[in-house]
Write the structure tokens for this entry.
Amino acid sequence: MSAFVEIRDAVKTFGDPARGGVLALDGVSLDVGRGDVVVIIGPSGSGKSTLLRSVNLLERLDSGSIRIGDDLVTARGADLRRIREDAGMVFQAFNLFAHLTVLENVALAPHLVRHVPKAEARQRAASLLERVGLADKLDRRPRQLSGGQQQRAAIARALAMDPKVMLFDEPTSALDPEMIKEVLDVMTALAEEGMTMLVVSHEMGFARAAADHVVFMDQGRIVEQGSPARVFGEPVEERTRDFLRHIL
Amino acid sequence: MNASARPPSGASTLASRIPWWLAALVGFGVLAVAGALADDGYRVIFGAVASGFGVTLTVALVSYAFSLALGLLLGMLRVSTFRPAMEAATFYVELVRGLPMLVILYYVAFVGAPALAGILNSLLAPFIARGVIEPFQGRSFDFATRAVLALTLGYAAFISEIFRAGIESVDKGQIEAAHALGFSGAQTMVRVVLPQAVRNVLPALANEFVAIIKDSALVSVLGVQDITQLGKVYAASTFKFFETYNVVAFLYLCMTVSLSLLVRVLERRLKGEVAR
């Protein structure tokens, strides 16, 4: 497997470690092949979200490197805009633009960042929203939608930039149980289409069905990784077993 | 409509719904108009003072428009990550907010205007030397202009604080989402943060307009012919202080109370939209 996303020795500290700062990433290396779906699990504070957010530079590493395709994300003076175009991000809290309609949310970035003509951007946005099952909600405001619908719209918004890799930061953690499935269905479909995905999530069903690779993180390090069947079925490390006992 | 605002008993339904303060204000207003129509004396006073209505409104509107623009700029600078800009804006805002409006007015009128003339003269020296434009003097700026300048400088500081609060009220997730989509800092500010920030502070901004109408009365100390100044002159020459200031107060209340009511409606509507 040739690595499409390549993370090497990522280190990130929040605050001053000498004075109670937190070492969020303690030398993490991870390869994600093109078209692979990697699910990262681990207790809160294990650094999994920080790792994800480092890939599109919402966090800056203290040291180490991240590469997406041929772009060295962590290079000094890297083209921030291009990297963020390449990596689509889906947040736990959806973060749809509250003052815009669903359609405008999806059409804005291609128009503003890629200079796609407005009419064309709106047309594409409409077809993306149809794909995630929101064809009848185009003119609604985010607050008029359910959480599941908002998250599906957020996925469409990220897809509108034709990203090469999609980052999901606990996409279903803020959702009511009955809405989790509709979001996971969209993500599963995306995985089947061959999208490269890096997913922080505790949805074991999704990980089993869609993931090529599962990574367990704790205290800023990767403790164990492997196929979903291996990590969930025969975890080697005591900490992994402990964690899985708690969430299963 | 609103099930939670149930009156204590069925009989008092209507009585408890009426905003009595407003009813009283409107009642006094109607009485005042009726009295004025019946009384020739009031009609004369009204005629003498009402011509200042336009000046008051113009001074307030123009100052407000400029202070909105300057306040927005200052507000954005105050949240800027560029430290010198933030420090400079904060210095200005804290300085001006610490001064009485009347002092700002005197300062701008009698210190600022001559200084401004001097600055303009040195900037435009080549043109003045060739006789293209006349050199500026302190009196090149009439007192209405100085008054507008003073109100603008003062209110920009207050309004910048409102904009700053509005900008800071926007959820950080909105900014992260914009960054994650590749928006530049300016695009994030203009397309994502400001539209939401302005919405959040619209009632507060509208209240500043009511405040600027009231503070515009201060320009009368410069002799600008606004409602207050005309009232002052009329009362001094006729000794009809009671009647004249009744009319002056009435005119201000017409503007401020109606605007305050509009702000209430606006507030309620915005709240309703958020709840929906």
